[in-house]
Write a structure and sequence with these properties.
CATH architecture: 3-Layer(aba) Sandwich
Largest sheet: 8 strands, mixed
Order of helices and strands: EEHEHEHEEHHEHEEEH
Structural class: alpha/beta
Radius of gyration: 17 Å
Low-confidence stretches: 113-119, 121-130
CATH class: Alpha Beta
Number of helices: 7
Distance between the termini: 19 Å
Strand content: 25-35%
Shape: globular
CATH superfamily: Vaccinia Virus protein VP39
CATH topology: Rossmann fold
Strand order of the largest sheet: 5-4-3-6-7-9-8-10
Number of strands: 10
Helix content: 25-40%
Mean pLDDT: 90
Oligomer: single chain
């Protein structure tokens, strides 16, 4: 599908290796934005999560960083033709990003395959594998470019999220909230949404979300989370 239509914007994806996915939609709908005046989306791809954040919080200043030239074409088009053309798009890797701004929130649907086999599509490999953005590099950027009270929100495969959490503990970063995702009620966890900060939290908000019920219909919880975006929900 070359275009994905949402209620308030559309995502053209002619060039980007990674298309609109449930992962990105989950992260964009779930991440808390109440205290986020400045937001940066790392590895924006088509611009999906940056656009979702802007829809939810139009007064926030949203920046998006992308390395891949093909994805940038789609992101630039999607932002320009959205209700929020003021989203600032930066053409670089986050490791090369330079700004005096400090953000309240960093959000990322990062590459997460550390050791899996790679295919012939190099752009897709970069988008899916941690060669271009390791977890350590993402956490370095988080520590550098966010405020003292800044937070980082990510979505990862469940097993990778456990490795990511070990890195947080080594850096004395704290987990503020977690949402474990099951595709169906009887399946093992597939994804995990994580929100972290620069201090340890006395309590962690722990949630579980199931996407499809036993009749292969969206659950009420998933509809409640995402109804503002899906065109036919």
């Amino acid at each position: 599908m070359s275009q994905f239509a949402f209620k308030q914007f559309s995502v053209t994806q002619h060039h980007a290796a990674m298309k609109v996915s449930t992962d990105g939609i989950l992260l964009g709908a779930w991440v808390p934005l109440a205290e986020a005046n400045r937001i940066i989306d790392v590895g924006t791809g088509t611009g999906l999560i940056a656009l979702m954040c802007k829809q939810r919080s139009p007064i926030s200043k949203v920046h998006a960083v992308e390395l891949d030239d093909a994805a940038l074409k789609d992101a630039e088009f999607n932002i320009k033709h959205s209700p929020w053309p003021d989203i600032e798009l930066h053409r670089c890797a986050i490791q090369e990003f330079d700004s005096e701004l400090r953000f309240d929130l960093m959000v990322s649907n990062p590459p997460y395959f550390n050791a899996s086999l790679k295919g012939e599509n190099q752009a897709r490999n970069r988008a899916r594998h941690t060669d271009s953005l390791s977890f350590d590099a993402l956490l370095d950027a988080f520590e550098k470019f966010t405020t003292v009270a800044g937070q980082l929100a990510v979505i990862l495969p469940y097993e990778e999220s456990l490795l990511f959490q070990q890195l947080l503990e080594k850096r004395n970063l704290g987990l503020a909230a977690s949402c474990i995702i099951h595709t169906t009620p009887n399946k093992v966890p597939s994804r995990r949404l994580m929100l972290l900060g620069k201090a340890r939290y006395e309590s962690v908000s722990e949630e579980v979300l199931v996407i499809y019920d036993s009749n292969n219909q969206y659950t009420k919880e998933y509809v409640r989370l995402c109804h503002a975006f899906y065109l036919k929900m």
